[in-house]
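Give me the fold.
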Amino acid sequence: MKEKSKKLAFDYPLYDKIGDESDITAVYLRVSTDTQAQEGYGLDVQYGAIKRYIEAYDVKNAYIFIDDGYTGMNERRPAFSRMQELMNEGRVKLVITYSLDRIGRTQLIIFRFLKENCEKAKCDFYAVKDNVDSRSRQTYGILISILSIFAEFDHDAIISKLTSGRVQRAREGLWKGGGIPPYGYEYSKKDGELKVIEEEAEKVRKVFGLYVSAGVSPKKIADILGLSSDKAVFNILKNRIYLGEIYYRGESYKGKHAPIVDEEIFDLAQEILKSKSVKRGKTVYLLSSLLVCGCCGGKMRYMKWGRGERGEVKILCYSFFARSTKKSLVKDENCPNGIFKAEEIEKAVIGVVMKFAAEYGEERERNPLLSDEIVEGLKIKKEKLEREYSRLIVAYRKIGDDNVLEQAAETKKKIKKIEKDIADEEEKKVVSLREKRKAEIIRTLPGVWDKMTDGAKKRVIRGLVEKVIVKKDGVDVHLNPSAYDRVSDEIEE
């Protein structure tokens, strides 16, 4: 911790004073540079805003966690790491920070903290400046959905950087490094190469021999050779590392390490594996659990219609589908609703969601940001009253006049009133900024939709859509009640 942090006067103890307490409120502060402090992210600014919140809501058992001089790209910050440990132990009930970017400088880091730490530990989270509150479930759910999108992009960018270095190592015939080396080899840090462990290498040869020559199953091979599972056997059989190659991202490169098996037996193993394997991709149904029949009000489901490649995915009412098998789901045995192409229904819903995203962004971005003029005016009034209060206190001490003391008390009330007005105005500005940021994020959705994974698309749909009513004459898409009109109301609260 730098000296400037120690000069701050805190009303709450630092995290190194925590004993056996549970139900801790973790106050997390971070600055990385002096420049950042000058731009309005100083520890004093962060602490002041959080302190006002703690006092206003009578938050108990607060401890200060400070990372001074640590970048938000670094997840191994001392205070941050200790806070995560306590969260994992179930001892933290609430994390308060100034803004989301104090947690991390990428959406991936923020998303991972909220999902893997806060949610798993059942710990609430509040960012004062951004007005992000996990206890406001609807608004928070939308934020998580949006963050998950951009977290995927952050993850892809990180992977891209790592990949470039690993591709270069592969081209040089070197193993990627990091983690556990393939069974049968050890990693030499001295020359960066893989070295054969003969005892393990002999087991690798027996794996191929038993599988190719004797026709022994992977599970049985694992039992015979004392390997952990049939999965370990499959990993050995498929790994081209044992041919003396480095296989990375679909490309093979001649390795600098010694091979363990020859090419003939390896190729035979691949032929056998290919002949016995049947791989099926998992289909993601975008609207599952959201579909409602527009005729009988029952649930609707996806169903593969037809066989083979000519088959289509349809959407139909359970009253039609479940007349003989799932009686509890039948609302009307004579339901007249039809059978619909899933692709067409999904396309209609996506169109509504994209329109919502564009209109939401435009509407919120048109709202002007609140200026600082009102707050500055109130601060000037407060300073004048504080000087007047000090003058009256000095006068009372000199002359002991009760009338002067009454004047001082009235002046103090005025100061408290102005302090409340300042806090209210600052809160309004926070809400205004938050709406702007939210609008900017949501407005990007149409542009990134086609680049998202099916899983990410489904999460966004489930975050924004309450239900989809399917009828013969069209589709009614009901947005989540908080997704439009109530979003701003919930933020203002």
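Confidence is low (pLDDT under 50) at residues 1-6, 484-493.
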